[in-house]
Amino acid sequence: MTGTRRTVAVLFLLPALVLLGALVVYPIGYSLVRSFLSNSGSGFVGLDNYQSLFSDDGILTAIKNTAIWVLVAPTVATALGLIFAVLTERVRWGTAFKLVVFMPMAISMLAAGIIFRLVYEQDPELGAANAVWVGVHDTFAESSSFPKAHPGAESPLKPADGGAYITKATVHAGQPVVLPMVGVAPEQMPNAAKPAKAAKTASGKVTGTTWQDFTRGKGVGTRGGVDASELGYSGMKIEAVKGGEVVDSTTAAADGTFTLSAKADGAQLRLPGSNFREPYNGVEWLGPTLVTPAIIGSYVWMWAGFAMVLIAAGLAGMPRELLEAARVDGANEWQVFRRITVPLLAPVLAVVLVTLMINVLKIFDLVFIIAPGSSQDDANVLALQLYRSAFAEQKPGVASAIAILLLLLVVPVMWFNIRRLRKEAQR
Description:
The chain is α+β, with helices and mostly antiparallel strands and about 425 residues long. It has helices at about 5-35, 50-55, 55-90, 95-100, 110-120, 130-140, 290-315, 320-330, 335-360, 365-370, 380-390, 395-425, and strands at about 155-160, 165, 175-180, 205-210, 235-240, 245-250, 255-260, 270. β5 and β6 form a beta hairpin. The two termini are about 25 Å apart.
């Protein structure tokens, strides 16, 4: 290249070099210098800021969570992208499916964080995740209709083990039993509940009524007596217990009446604790234990489409004759996938994996928005800790040290990617 051409090349590159220096080189140099100064910037503190990275519990948690992110999120997103790309090649509506999976990429991190903050709400009435989880749970484990029910002051029932209630005295055939309780609001009573009725006697059998012994309005109703304005405990389970063993059991009718066989004569009646357990409220997705996996799940939802599109592009350029030759030689689909498809896609998979690894090292938005204040410390990552140290804790020296640590973590990944690209160019 002649001197004139070199000068022209430099002039064309000058704007880019100025921007690169102003936006990349200068901030890196300033952060490096600032990491060796005190938080006020007035004195040199050596490696004190770096030592705090490995002595502060909050920063150690951020380092640990960042490591989890780097190991889990890119791997899961890439694996899902590979599965989606391979499977959608075999279905007629594959293009539509790819469009739906890729669509979250059009949503900003802020919007995605707000969406998943609502999805992970603890209340099943609001959070979609817990609504599904509770629905599945209640399919296999019936929920209680009377979680707040309890005996009144003069009730014939007393507390028993396991949240149950049992009669203070034994019951006998021909003597109707009353099991009044209070504590359930009328609007929370089962839809099948009907006005309570006094049980009729039955020869050789134990009969009774269990009902909500409360009528709204001062001085309304008779305490301990069945009133027409009061509802029966429809579906209440009743057990007859003798010597610690259940000899008979039944379920109350819509009007609260029940009938037990002669086996219940001389037994105590017990209302099992299953009648009164609190309704299942789902999983605490944003609690200290599950907050990081939950946020990683939202990240995978966003970026699996990105991985799928790149891998699908790699699949489109794959020589099909190799796949057909393998099938002709007797290889099944799993063997074709494992021994031919994946090895041929290795360069593309490496690009996707490395890109996502660099991306998760900088993850901030999702953690900041999704994690509530009570568990944000447990979900902390390095990028979030950098923000908190710089602005919330007023420790710019420590924040600069975190920034340099992030740079040192990104450099090996970038070096691997550049080296791989150079090898690809030489082929």
